[in-house]
Amino acid sequence: MSSARTLIRGGLVITAADEIHADVLTEDGRIAALAAHGSAAAESWTADRVIDATGRYVIPGGVDAHTHMELPFGGTSASDTFETGTRAAAWGGTTTIVDFAVQSVGHSLRAGLDAWYAKADGVCAVDYGFHMILSDVDERSLKEMDRLVEEGVTSFKLFMAYPGVFYSDDGRILRAMQRSARNGGLIMMHAENGIAIDVLVEQALAEGRTDPRYHGEVRKVVLEAEATHRAIQLARVAGAPLYVVHVSADEAVAEITAARDKGLNVFGETCPQYLFLSTDQLAEPDFEGAKYVCSTPLRPKEHQAALWRGLRTNDLQVVSTDHCPFCFTGQKELGRGDFSKIPNGLPGVENRMDLLHQAVLDGHLTRRRWIEIACATPARMFGLYPRKGTIAPGADADIVIYDPHAEQTLSVTTHHMNVDYNAYEGRRITGQVETVLSRGEVVIDQRTYTGRAGHGRYIPRGTCQYLV
Ligand SMILES: NC(=O)NCCC(=O)O
Ligand SMILES: [Zn+2]
Ligand SMILES: [Zn+2]
After folding, report:
1. Which residues of the chain have pLDDT under 70?
2. All structural domains of the chain
């Protein structure tokens, strides 16, 4: 059980707003107080447990607003369960995930959501919430959206890609946006022109272009940018806010920037894979490129500058992982000889906080911006703030003691995700999660897992707190 009172002493507390040399007192799962090192208040505190954070950062637990534990996709399922995936999240300093429940075509939102509640119930290591994937927008599901918002499932993902699976046409998208404009829900958009992409897939395969790298070639930048533009215009017509997921291309960032310059409530998320990986990986020989098949796809390296710039200028607000792992053996291999059968998705829930810390050292981000895009803004965007995403009195005691000087090498041999490769294999990172508290309970103790399946609680969410 958690110590009723824990004192974290001597660290540098970093939030999106501040960097302060302060001790942090937690009590019964919440943050009770902060006070300057050596101050009379801090010296007066007694605690059941004292953690020495001297020379360490004390940061809010990460909020990963885009994961797919156990997602059924392409005839198989993402290899991390809620149990293994949330444990890996804890190892990587993420203490809240927002995963995607899926509506199956012909079925209700209720049935999909209940199935996802059941998968996660009693097995998660850290806290979790749900978005809802809308695969079948009709009168019934539109009405159900209202009830879900009241219930704490306040965001809905729609797909302009994957015809025949998750795809919604423009009419359905507009209806869902109109509904969300009324009920306070936030539409999350997978913006790629899936109808055009399917034509290019068919042509590529007919011409014998079957290797993983063609996955990237057919999913063209212009088809991401066009869909992003179209989604923004539909959201304008509906008067609804829009959150574009997994933005990968410079031209898509430009569309979001133009919309924001008009003062629209349009937001963008990118993911570590687009910031750190590129078509170089997708082109790896001997089918190794399959490890890097995801949608939107990895882009040529030149796109990364626009993504980093977007994160700095707040044209992109969030970095989530889109964690959707498939093992190379037996899963990615389903697409040997036909790239369109490679299950889409990359692992990353464990690596996000570290990769972004490396980005701080590499000069892409400030420390506070690191915490903003990985903790505070995702919490605000998805109605979890200030309970999650910050270190302040009253917030959940989700706290990471981060050693900014530790050296590590990302690898499948040391990671905790249930997948047989690491997308960042061999990458050297300075900085490492040392200790993690989830609602006051130490779940990683100086790099030993001390958490348990079932500690993580379902968190009903409020509506978006990021609107202008
Ligand atoms: N991104 C991806 O390749 N797989 C997960 C499903 C999605 O987010 O579109
Ligand atoms: Zn998507
Ligand atoms: Zn996704």
Report:
1. 1-3
2. 5-59+388-405+430-444 (2.30.40.10), 61-381 (3.20.20.140)
pLDDT reported for residue 407:
98
- Compute the distance between CA of residue 388 and CA of residue 34 in angstroms, rounded to an integer: 16
- Determine the Cα–Cα distance for residues 315 and 312; give it in Å rounded to an integer: 8
Alpha helices per DSSP H over 207-349:
213-218, 221-238, 250-261, 272-276, 279-282, 304-313
Which atom, in ligand 1's list, is nearest to the CA of 66? Answer: 8
Burial class of residue 15 (count of CB atoms within 10 Å of its CB; 0-12, 13-18, 19+)? buried
Does 332 sit in the ligand 1 pocket, CB within 6 Å? no
pLDDT at position 3: 53
Q: What pLDDT is recorded for position 320?
A: 99
Assess whether the C-beta atom of 344 lies below 6 angstroms from ligand 1.
yes
Distance linking the first and last C-alpha atoms of the chain: 41
Contact 462, 455 (CB under 8 A): no
Q: Is 66 in the pocket of ligand 1 (CB under 6 A)?
A: no
* C-beta separation of 24 from 352 below 8 A: no
C-alpha 65 – ligand 3 centre gap (Å): 10
Helix/strand/coil for 127: strand
For residue 1, the model assigns a pLDDT of 46
Nearest residue (CA) to ligand 1, atom 1: 295
Looking at the chain, how many residues does it have? 468
ipTM attached to this prediction: 0.98
